[in-house]
TrEMBL record:
Protein name stated in the entry: Dopa 4,5-dioxygenase
Superkingdom of the organism of origin: Eukaryota
Protein species of origin: Hypholoma sublateritium (strain FD-334 SS-4)
Alphabetical list of Pfam families matching this protein: DOPA_dioxygen
């Protein structure tokens, strides 16, 4: 029998623990010229789409042509704030070809982010988690000049979220297939 902890439902706790920044790691076998080329073409496409306003995604300048850190093959990182996470995820899901993509949040728990809070587009690769700290003192926030992610302002306050939730419950009353939220305690 599983002993998983009960998920929190206190709105303040949930809002304060919300993930604000994410990494996508695009993997390619460094000795496979076709995969390397495909990975770089995908990176260039992401950069063009960022320029054109499709989403906010920041690939690191450096492309790792050999294993580095926990990553066992060639790779590069794309940072995105939660504000455009769905758009970047959707684009990579539809356009990654045969490449594998590791998706993970940025929190203080770097090892857990890579090991249990991760997702894969395509086949998973084994990671060398021993290269990562278990817990960092600070949230690994990036690109503060953008004022997005952890350095941005929360656009939905708790009162706004309460109102939004009540409105959604009201609107879904006539939807036969939508589950109903339990009454407030």
């Amino acid at each position: 029998m599983s002993t998983a902890p009960k998920p929190p439902t206190d709105l303040k706790t949930v809002v304060e623990s919300e993930i604000k920044e994410w990494h996508f790691h695009i993997y390619f076998h460094q000795n496979n010229a076709d995969e390397h080329r495909a990975a770089l073409q995908l990176r260039d496409a992401v950069l063009r789409l960022r320029r054109d306003g499709a989403f906010v995604a920041v690939p690191l300048l450096h492309v790792n042509t050999s294993p580095i850190g926990p990553h066992p093959v060639g790779s590069y990182e794309i940072w995105t704030p939660s504000e455009t996470f769905a758009s970047v995820f959707s684009y990579l899901c539809m356009n990654r070809g045969d490449l594998s993509v590791l998706v993970h949040p940025l929190t203080r728990d770097q090892r857990k982010d890579h090991e249990v809070r991760n997702a894969w587009l395509g086949p998973a690769f084994p990671l060398d988690l021993g290269t990562l700290p278990v817990r960092s003192e600070e949230i690994p926030s990036q690109y503060h000049s953008l004022k997005l992610g952890y350095s941005g302002k929360d656009s939905l306050t708790i009162p706004m979220r309460l109102k939004l939730g009540s409105n959604i419950e009201y609107l879904l009353q006539s939807e036969k297939e939508a589950a109903r939220a339990p009454a407030r305690e």
